[in-house]
Design a protein that fits this description.
- There is one protein chain.
- The chain is about 45% helix and about 15% strand.
- The chain contains 14 helices and 13 strands.
- The strands form 2 sheets. Strands 3-2-1-4-5-6-7 form a 7-stranded parallel beta sheet, with helices on both faces. Strands 10-9-8-11-12-13 form a 6-stranded parallel beta sheet, sandwiched between helices.
């Protein structure tokens, strides 16, 4: 009988993408494994999970308030209903293990697994664990973190599972092919600029303001502005290629074409940059709890990147601080090695091995 794994990773991309990377790794390790993903009808998982070929079981969403509000009084009843839904999924699938990645799908997942006696594995991608994973860490010793310094009960560093298309990328071997794909020259340095799937206005404004000096210095740019941004930009004249794209669905080619990146510092972005050994200037989001800065800090401290506050990013900063680095091939090479040493491109397969081991222990008489 096939091993059955239930994965609770719905809600946001930060939970779904590592969950799907784990699912892919489980399937590579054991082609017969049965995988069911928990989600809600509100999350991105309704589109992403079926597209990747995995079963999706929907449960009621139970977002937990971050402060004392009247909504808090409604949580116990709604949580109880979601836990019942999870236990039904676990019973129907004959689950051998539940893996949670945090978020509001994980809380009922952990509680439902505890109720049915199903072993739990927790993965926390962020430096500051969320409430769901703090609860999960109380219910199991199988707790893994995406950041070395994350403080979570029983936590052991393993890295963040990322898609095999990125984890298995040989950036240097693919460089010429990738540059040709984008119409870039093979022998000039390339800066990749990306603010994630939605782009980042401050990155776009700073880069367009610095376009003239960047191009005159002989640095090529592959600039992913985001689907909502205007791609019809009047760039200053110059012979050095400056390619503007609204979206890039082949990030592996973008990474392979680049020598350096200017980007945000989400957990998945940092994991992918280090997995492929691409040094970057990280610009953390200016709002939130400062988590993006914490994501990038270990990489920067190790010498694999630069860190600049969103308010300080400007055409002048790019000219004074970033351009000299881009033009120093030896420094870029050192930073590339440091970036590669800061991540774990095998996190997906290593976590899959732990999950299957836990499932195997449950099956032993």
């Amino acid at each position: 009988m096939a091993v059955s794994v239930v994965i609770a990773g719905g809600g946001t991309g930060g939970h779904i993408y590592p969950a799907l990377a784990l699912a892919d790794a489980l399937r590579r390790a054991d082609p017969d494994v049965a995988i069911t993903c928990l989600g809600t009808e509100r999350g991105l998982e309704t589109r992403l999970v079926p597209t990747r070929g995995y079963d999706l079981a929907l449960i009621p969403p139970v977002p937990l308030p971050r402060s004392l509000t009247p909504q808090l009084l409604t949580v116990p009843g709604r949580l109880a209903g979601a836990v019942r839904a999870v236990t039904e999924v676990l019973a129907r699938t004959g689950a051998d293990v539940l893996v949670g990645f945090g978020g509001y799908v994980a809380t009922p997942g952990y509680l439902g697994a505890r109720r049915r006696g199903v072993p739990i594995v927790v993965h926390e991608a962020n430096p500051r664990p969320g409430l769901a994973n703090r609860i999960g860490a109380l219910l199991t010793t199988q707790v893994y973190t995406g950041q070395p310094g994350t403080r979570l009960r029983h936590g052991r560093y393993i890295g963040i599972p990322i898609r095999q298309q990125i984890a298995g990328l040989d950036r240097l071997a693919m460089s010429d092919k990738a540059r040709s794909h984008f119409g870039l020259e093979p022998d000039l340095p390339v800066l990749l600029v990306t603010g994630g799937s939605q782009g980042a206005r401050s990155l776009n404004l700073a880069m367009f303001g610095a376009a003239a000096v960047i191009r005159s210095a002989g640095v090529q740019v592959l600039h992913v502005v985001g689907p909502k941004a205007d791609t019809d930009v009047a760039l200053p004249p110059g012979d050095t290629p400056y390619v503007v794209l609204p979206y890039l669905d082949r990030m592996d080619l973008g990474y392979a074409a680049a020598d350096f990146a200017l980007c945000r510092a989400g957990a998945m972005t940092c994991a992918e940059m280090t997995a492929v050994g691409l040094p970057a200037a990280y610009v953390p989001l200016p709002h939130g709890n400062g988590e993006q800065r914490l994501n990038a800090l270990p990489i920067v401290t190790a010498g694999g990147g630069l860190l600049v506050a969103d308010a300080e990013l400007s055409p002048d900063w790019i000219e004074r601080m970033l351009l000299p680095v881009l033009l120093d091939a030896e420094q870029v090479a050192r930073m590339s090695r440091a970036a590669a040493a800061s991540g774990n491109s095998a996190a997906d397969s290593e976590l899959a091995a732990r999950v299957l081991e836990v499932a195997g222990h449950r099956r032993r008489p």
